[in-house]
Write a structure and sequence with these properties.
The protein contains 21 helices and no strands. The protein is mainly alpha-helical. It has one domain. Helix 6 packs antiparallel against helix 10 and helix 10 runs parallel beside helix 18. The radius of gyration is 22 Å and the shape is globular.
Length: 429
């Protein structure tokens, strides 16, 4: 059936409602938003989607989801997830995380310790592609700086979370970047450039704020920080390769090989453990890969049943310009992330709708990808039940609400992105 002639059907969105009720409901009841695994909630939603639309039999519905899952972007995204996992496993086992953190701290001026935490967090998150890994690496250091400088711990850990969220939506190997780029159909380097200039003002202002609120502090490292620059090289190679436009598979596989060579030659990885560490990294990406496939199944059925068309018709009735479309994409991403507490899942869910909106209102794919990634990261960096704040709180003995007043970067990122939408002049074709 031609999607352009299909009538919108609000009932087709019911599976998404089921997911939200189950996922959020279990979190509210148990006070643990990770008590219900997302994949289980999505499978229940998929079962509900299968029970809709009596005009199609079971085999027809299987054909619909097979076509959706077989989409080039879904397959490519899944393979990139696995390659990113391989690189992450190899570079972590090689000691790249520790060397990168220690190198950054060793060149950190003592009077800008908290600012340094933010800047190092930015670099590590861009290099590692994970906000969670950045928080895990820097949180203990933030505690030490707090104890030695007298600055409140929430300020120090707030700087870490801000830095972690900077790279979460910019890194070339972040699952959010991969999802945003593949669902919108643009190049990673183009999305990076678009994204970078939107968030740069927010990052600069964040540095200024942390500098002034910690102006009278001082910090001196007493322990020796050891690092090996060879272990930092894989991160730099991946970043440079992605920026100059090298194919993402070549970048990630090359980074994995360089990491293994660095790990073996420095003695961090035993020769007979090379494939094991790669396998462990890949295993860490299984969840998001399977979730992406299941979400593609749900979206395919929702689209076939008219749910996507209903949302588009609703948005069209309220949007009259490309700026309105961009604000719509931003709001959609933010709301879905607040509901799912996972920015990658939010992008995978909102991506198809954002793609339709961008095509309808002539929004550049790299721009829609940037907005999806930025606003899902904003939500993830601010919601108290998100993994990032829960992890930071657990590692420091704080509560998410202790840290939230110092999350300047996500707040400024919203301001910068909205102003960018409203004030930027569109190029005349």
């Amino acid at each position: 059936m031609n999607n352009e002639t299909k009538k919108g059907n609000a009932w087709a969105l019911f599976p998404i409602g089921v997911f939200l009720v189950i996922f959020l409901g279990s979190g509210i009841v148990t006070r643990d938003f990770y008590a219900m695994p997302a994949i289980v909630a999505f499978l229940i939603a998929l079962a509900v989607a299968f029970m809709q639309n009596g005009e199609l039999n079971f085999n027809d519905k299987i054909a619909v989801i097979a076509k959706g899952v077989g989409d080039e972007n879904i397959i490519t995204m899944s393979l990139i997830f696995l390659c990113a996992g391989a690189f992450s496993g190899a570079v972590s086992a090689a000691g790249g995380v520790e060397s990168t953190v220690n190198f950054g701290l060793s060149i950190l001026p003592s009077n800008v310790a908290v600012v340094g935490l933010f800047i190092i967090g930015c670099f590590i998150s861009v290099s590692m592609g994970t906000s969670m890994g950045t928080i895990a690496a820097l949180a203990p250091i933030a505690v030490g700086i707090s104890e030695k400088t007298g600055f409140a711990m929430p300020i120090c850990i707030g700087a870490v979370v801000c830095g972690a969220m900077f790279g979460d939506n910019l890194s070339m190997i972040s699952d959010t970047t991969i999802a945003a780029v593949k669902t919108q159909g643009c190049e990673m380097k183009d999305k990076f450039k678009e994204n970078f200039f939107i968030v740069l003002p927010a990052a600069i202002l964040t540095i200024g704020i942390f500098f002034f609120i910690t102006l009278n502090g001082d910090f001196e490292l007493t322990e020796e920080l050891t690092y090996n620059m060879w272990k930092v090289v894989p991160y730099i190679m991946v970043l440079i390769g992605a920026l100059i436009g090298v194919n993402v598979f070549v970048v990630l596989i090359g980074g994995t090989i360089i990491s293994l060579v660095a790990g073996v030659t420095t003695g961090s990885i035993a020769l007979d453990q090379m494939f094991k560490v790669v396998g462990e990294g890949i295993s860490g990406m299984y969840d998001i890969t399977v979730i992406s496939i299941v979400v593609a199944c749900i979206v395919s059925l929702i689209k076939e049943n008219g749910g996507i068309q209903f949302v588009l018709d609703l948005i069209r009735s309220r949007i009259k310009s490309s700026k309105g479309a961009e604000l719509g994409i931003a709001g959609l991403s933010l709301v879905v992330d607040a509901c799912t507490a996972n920015n990658t899942i939010a992008i995978v869910m909102a991506g198809p709708i954002a793609k339709e909106i961008s095509e309808e209102f002539d929004v550049d794919p790299k721009r829609s990808a940037s907005l999806l990634d930025i606003f899902s990261s904003v939500g993830q960096g601010l919601i108290p039940y998100g993994a990032q704040l829960l992890s930071a709180a657990t590692l420091t003995g704080l509560t998410p609400f202790d840290i939230m007043p110092y999350l300047y970067y996500p707040i400024l990122m919203v301001v910068s992105a909205v102003l960018f939408i409203l004030l930027r002049k569109r190029k005349i074709a």
